[in-house]
Amino acid sequence: MKAVLQRVKSASVTVDGSLISSIGKGILVFTAVAKEDSEKDAESMASKVLKFKIWDDENGGRWKRTVQDVGGEVLCVSQFTLLASTKKGNKPDFHNSASGEKAFELYKRFFGTVQQLYGPEKVKDGVFQAMMDVALVNDGPKSTRPQSLTHQEEVTFPKRALMTSWEI
Question: Does the active-site annotation cover 116?
Fold first, then answer.
C-alpha cells in the first residue's frame, strides 16, 4: 500500500458537481493498493498516517505533532495511479495495482481503521473508482509518502543523473 500525505488548510472531493466530502485543517491522504498488499498493510498504513508528525509544536519544534495532536481532520482518497510504473517507457503501467475488488476491500479496511482509531466524525473519504475533483489548499506545502510494510523501498538515483542535474 502506498500513500501520499499532504498537510492542508482545507480539502474537498466533488463528483459530478456534487460535494461529497470536505475537511478543514488536517491531512489529505491519497492511497493505492498493490497486488501483494494485505489487511496487515492496510492497518499498518492507517496507523502510520495518524502517527505521522507533520506539524510543529507550540515551541517551534519541527515535525513534532500529529493530525490528532492538532485536532485536524483526515480526507482519504483512493488513487491507484500512485502505483504507476514507467520503467518501460512513458506510458504508465498499472500491473502492480490490485484488482478492483481486492483494492476496494483493502481500501475499506484502511479507511475503517483510520475511522476506528481517530473517530468517524474526523475522517472522511471520496468515492472509490469515481472520477473525482479533489480541491485542496496546501499548508506549507508539506507532503510525504508513508509506505506500508510491503513497500519499504529506498529511492536511489544514479550518480551521473545527480551530477548532471547539478551541472545544469
Answer: no
